[in-house]
Design a protein that fits this description.
522 residues; alpha/beta; eight-stranded mixed beta sheet; 37% helix
Length: 522
Amino acid sequence: RDWMDRNCLIYFFLYCLIGQVLSVHMFDVYRMLQYDIGEKQFGSRKANVNLVASLDIQQSSLSDQIIVISATELDMEKFDKMLEKNLQGILIILPQDKTVLGDNWLQFERALIKKELTIPVYFANEDESTKELYQNLKEFESSEQSSSLFASDSWRLVVSSRQASPIKNMDSNIYQGWLPGSNLQNEETLPTIAIFATYDTLGVSPDLSNGLDSNGSGMLALLELSRLFSKLYSTARTHGEYNILFLLTGTGKMNYQNTLQWLETADSRILESLEFVLCLDSIASDKPLNLHTSRPPKNEVVKSVYTAFEQTAEQLGVDFQLSRKKIDISSEDIPWQHEQLARKRYFSATLSAEEESRTFLDKTNMLDTNGTVSIDILKRNIQYVAETLAKIIYNLDNKDVQIFPDDGDVFVESWLNTISQYPRMIPYITTDSDLLHGIEKELSKYMEVVTQNMKIESDYTFYDKTSLVMSAYRAKPFIFDLVITIAIILYCALLYTLVNGWTDTKLEIEGLIKGSGKKKRR
């Protein structure tokens, strides 16, 4: 009898472990941003997944299912209809070539990030595992067996995770580099030209927000400009009579809070010497470059700066336009980095290929990757900025000369490849990240660098658990499980009866029933 009980248990557990799960795939997935604004909740509020996968969004009900869908097939109208059908989860497959998604995807992404969703929303890059999963689901749902719960297999997607927790402390770094000018007669009162850029990004999924153009291009331009001008300032013959300040900050997607913090803590001598601040943002696309500013050309300094940009643009064949707009000081939203400085009455401007800035959440862009950035245009635009600043520093108005040779190809390409590998959304990029350490080390090659760590104050609360692993199990359907379980029970009961005899078995069953009845009466 004991051996028979053991065999029954062995058969049952073997079925559970082997019979149900036929194959397993594991791949990386990236969770949608989860955040609060004050007490209002937004984003995907759930991380755990244990649902049957399906491609069919036309079903009358999507309860107990997670839809697997290509980003090329998704828009907000479809997504809302799925939610109305009680959708329980969604896995969005991103194509390897993200340029095929275009403006329709950007509209979807910017609408999605503002939703409050009680379901898990995940993204995955297209690779061999996700291709195979997608193909298996497609073949299954197109076969005749897909309508038979007993005959067909199913795929179950599983993510095991604790509930996401709020990130309590947010901080970022400010990197300040300084190239002092040279004037033997009066070095203490030399004017300063400053070059500002931000390093952080924003995306509907934090670990997919690489922001190669916005603002990887501005950060890379600042690095290259520091390299170029440090060469000129290393010899007496080409040492300019301007100090050059380089400032790389975080919080570019959070009202440029670091810029304001720097203004409030910077050495007063530096602030008093500021003649012009140029902020660099999104300069790697093939669109015309815009110099956004609020300062009218009423004095000679402002006129000379605008003239330098216009003359150099004509010289290098750059499509350029000056965009003057008054600052709305009553608005809490800071659309451009230079506006933090302009509010303090410093002459400043932002060079960008974007005609208009967007509000915080509308800056999300998962498509901003290698495929959307032209390295040739980025190198040209960096050279354009360098030549323009050289005209100002060395007083080269109306002179058609080129100061910088085309020797930065390797530097720009190498750093562009490095930056593309790092998502940089605050607070998910830590201040001790490899990328930020590398940038600080690079700047230190050309000048003395001072690093400041700043606490970030914000109405936004962000949550962790942004990158996880999803398992795809090919399993038998529930009815199959039920039938096999009943069959095993009946088999064990028959075997038990054959060994012990019908009379003993009957008496034992009656005893179990009577014992159960007594317990209920108690």
